[in-house]
Amino acid sequence: TGFVTVVPTGRSKVDLTVSSGGNKLGVETFTVKKPPLPTFSFKSGGRDVDMKNGAKATALRSLDVAPEAEENFAREVPKDAEYRIRQLEVTLARGSRPVTKQTFTTQKLNLAQFVSQARPGDRLVVEIKQVTRKTYEGKNEPVQLRNAIYTIPLN
Fold first, then answer.
1. How many CA atoms are closer than 13 Å to the CA of 35, on its beta-carbon side?
2. Of 24, 119, 33, 36, which Cα lies nearest the Cα of 81?
3. Buried b (16+ CB within 10 A) or exposed e, 97-134
């Protein structure tokens, strides 16, 4: 009894042929699934940020933006389900114009400069630009995100 790891690249199906002593024992076809995209959680002071109703403009001094693997993926292949934010941009917006913006390369954000300029009715726009996924081999693969822009209303 043993384990074989097959890492297919660029295909939707892969055929695995099993042989013993030169004799073909069988062929199994497997559907290749791409790793699911992560979701993101937003916390401030250890509490979830209410993305619908927002946060008090003067209270949001820090923000922890954490990528989270899809539950089944994390359970089935935990060594492949480790995501990390490499770059994100936060913009303090008022009406249709940006007030200030900053690029971060970590998921724990110090928003002190935003709080001093924020007013009720403003919003923080968080655009996640780069995320990597650590594979079971320890390699970091870039994740192709789609529409990773989140808005936090300030009140």
1. 28
2. 36
3. eeeeeeebeebebebeebbeebeeebbbbbbbeebbbe
The SS3 assignment for 89 reads strand
The C-alpha R_g of the chain, in whole angstroms, comes to 21
Residue with the larger pLDDT of the pair 138 and 33: 138
Report the SS3 class of residue 45: coil
Q: How does residue 137 score in pLDDT terms, banded at 50, 70 and 90? A: confident
**pLDDT tens-digit profile of 29-70?**
888 878 899 999 999 988 999 999 999 888 888 999 999 999
Which DSSP category does 63 fall into?
A: E
Residue 8 carries which side chain, given as an amino acid letter? P
Record the pTM.
0.81
Given its phi and psi angles, is residue 138 left (phi above 0), alpha (psi -120 to 50 degrees) or beta?
A: left
